[in-house]
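Protein modeling request. Please complete all fields; requests missing the sequence field cannot be processed.
Requester role: graduate student
Desired output: 3D structure, token encoding
Chains: 1
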Amino acid sequence: MKKYLAEMFGTMVLVLMGCGVAVSLNCSSDCATVANAGTVIGTAMAFGLAVVAMAYTIGGISGCHINPAITLGVFLSGRMSSKDCGMYIVFQCIGAFIGSALLFLLTSGVEDLAGTGANDLQNGVSLMGGLLAEIIFTCVFVLVVLGATAKTNGATNNFAGLAIGLSLILVHLACIRYTGTSVNPARSLAPAIFQGGTALTNLWVFIVGPFVGAAIAAGIWKVIDTEKE
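Delivered output (229 residues):
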């Protein structure tokens, strides 16, 4: 049970800090324009640093997935049981709801702090474009996670949390212009429910895309993993 609670706490922190910074910096549907580059960088760093912080806080307890897509990738790679996979995802979603609820309470009634940091298709991006972006960037991110935490990496595993956090910053910098960057179904689900509107209408993109990307990453890893030779 402790590892499930750790996943809940870690996901709560990720959503509260990452989405909280996005709201504070007003990283909205047009945040990726040149004039608002600072909001993109700040939001990207917030999510990456939250992952690094949690990796060194709960990594020894649960592995610090704090993302259903990562959990699916780990499961498909044969590193965890189906029971743990299901329970991780449930508790990650609970943690995301707690983080979103706290953010909603903090921003309610504050004139300059509208929204919950929910994902949505950015200006001019089609449903197919957004879906492809989530698949591609989730695949890259989950592949980094699988590689950084592999037994074949030996001593470098001590830096896995840093590598994963930095890769999430990179993914956000590249993907925010298209979808606001999810690559994490729990991170998208809770804020969308609180925010409603098109964020809720397009929510399926941010659930299907990351799960498909994670499955592809697991398949790629099985092909290139030297431990399987």
